[in-house]
Amino acid sequence: MILRKSVGYLVIITLIILLSGCGSGLKEDDSMAGQKENGSLSVKISAVPDTVQKWIEKNQSKQQNKVFRADGKTYVVILLGEKNTGGYNVEVEKIKQTGNDEASNVVSYRVTEPAKGSVNIQVLTYPMAIAALDSDVEGPFTFEQIEEN
């Protein structure tokens, strides 16, 4: 009887450990989404400073781009504005420094729209991309959309 109870408790403890995931508690949604070759890092809105989050919340319905310098990092934000359906996405492809004397930075990004005739959720969405650079990058930024072929 005692052996049966011990085995039962052991099974319950094992299930609890397996179901909890034994992880560090850090979820991908709360941190990085992917490292790019140029050192830029795609991040979720919850991982950026409050000033950036507040600006995004205030301006998410308008299509625009902005660069923030905070906490020793540079944050590049691309907002597609308000969309009537799901299926839209924007992704920063690369951030490249150009010029020798006066450095400028070119942000290349790709926009994906829903395929014609596709069935998408009918809800207001606010697609955006946020990239973080590990340093306070000097110079102006320009944005160029990569066109689909």
Helix-strand blueprint:
Blueprint: H1 2-20, E1 32-35, E2 41-43, H2 50-59, E3 63-70, E4 73-80, E5 89-98, E6 104-112, E7 128-133, E8 141-146
Parallel strand pairs: 6-8
Antiparallel strand pairs: 1-2, 2-7, 3-4, 4-7, 5-6
**What is the count of DSSP helices, taking H or I runs of 4+ residues?**
2
Distance between the termini: 71 Å
- Tally of structural domains: 1
Beta content comes to: 35-45%
Major beta sheet, strand line-up: 1-2-7-4-3
Q: If you compute it from the alpha carbons, what radius of gyration comes out, rounded to the nearest whole angstrom?
A: 22 Å
SS-derived structural category: alpha+beta
Query: Percentage of helical residues?
Result: 10-25%
Describe what this molecule looks like in 3D.
- This protein has 149 residues and is of the alpha+beta class.
- The chain has one domain (25-146).
- Helix content is 19%, strand content 36%.
- The protein is built from 2 helices and 8 strands, in the order αββαββββββ.
- The strands form 2 sheets. It has a 5-stranded antiparallel beta sheet, with helices on one face.
- It is extended and about 80 Å long.
- The chain starts with a helix and ends with a strand.
Compact summary:
By secondary structure, the chain is of the alpha+beta class. 19% of the residues lie in helices and 36% in strands.
